[in-house]
Design a protein that fits this description.
Layout: E1 8-14, E2 17-20, E3 26-31, E4 34-38, E5 45-48, E6 53-60, H1 65-69, E7 80-82, H2 89-100, H3 105-120, H4 126-135, H5 140-146, H6 151-162, H7 166-183, H8 188-195, H9 200-211, H10 215-218
Antiparallel strand pairs: 1-6, 2-5, 3-4, 3-6, 4-7
Protein name: HTH araC/xylS-type domain-containing protein
Keywords: DNA-binding, Transcription, Transcription regulation
GO molecular function, one term: DNA-binding transcription factor activity
Length: 225
């Protein structure tokens, strides 16, 4: 998205209950008249809303939201928190005003993203390097070596950027990788091999542990926050 590297704005219609899947990201949601921060998920997050309710959000690239929102991700794990609980009232009013001033809330959310990015200054490149390495299938040890970090420092940086350690991040990114493969109709055994699981039973255990559901039930699902 222009002015907010790696971010995207999205819209989703919720049909009653929905399951949000872990993706390594944090979102800022517009729910009617208020802004809500979706923290990093370590498991499937169940959302209940009136059928047909519209949810809009801006999804920040993994590891970037804490610096932009000033929100420690470890305190927001598996939760949704009103922005008013994290920011001073005048700053919340400015953010809400940006959304209200636009005819389309998505444009307002994009404006919030550009404002926060400009305020935050240069982006720390290390979280993106960590994500790129783990997303490519590298081990945690290889990721630490490639980033020039010791294991402990990698863990500390991961907690600060993602809310959890690199092993959890690797599991979440691998889940997203296998979902993308399975959505293309690739057989599950091949998905397991290509995504880096030991075998198909390992894939099945991991998917259920992270989402609470078998892989087949997740295909084609929009995983928005």
């Amino acid at each position: 998205m222009r002015g907010v590297p790696g971010a995207l704005v999205w819209r989703r219609r919720v049909s009653g209950a929905a399951l949000v899947l872990p993706d390594g990201c944090m979102d800022l949601l517009w729910l009617g008249e208020r802004l809500v921060v979706a923290g990093p998920d370590t498991r499937g997050y169940r959302v209940a809303a009136p059928a047909g309710a519209a949810v809009r959000g801006i999804r920040f690239a993994p590891g970037t939201a804490p610096a932009l929102l000033g929100a420690p991700p470890g305190e927001l794990l598996d939760s949704r928190v009103a922005l008013s609980e994290l920011w001073p009232a005048d700053r919340v009013r400015r953010a809400v005003g940006l959304v209200a001033a636009e005819g389309d809330p998505l444009r307002g959310l994009a404006e919030i993203g550009r404002w926060l990015t400009a305020d935050a200054g240069p982006v720390d490149p290390v979280p993106e390097r960590i994500v790129r390495s783990l997303r490519g299938g590298a081990s945690v040890a290889a990721t630490a070596d490639a980033a020039g970090l010791g294991a402990r420092r990698l863990h500390r940086l991961s907690l600060a950027a993602f809310g959890y350690g690199p092993k959890t991040l690797a599991r979440v990114l691998r889940l997203q990788r296998v979902l993308a493969l399975a959505d293309r109709g690739i057989p599950f055994a091949e998905c397991a091999f290509r995504a880096g699981y030991a075998d198909q039973p390992h894939l099945a255990r991991e998917v259920r542990a992270l989402t609470g559901r078998p892989l087949r039930e997740l295909l084609g699902q929009d995983s928005g926050a």
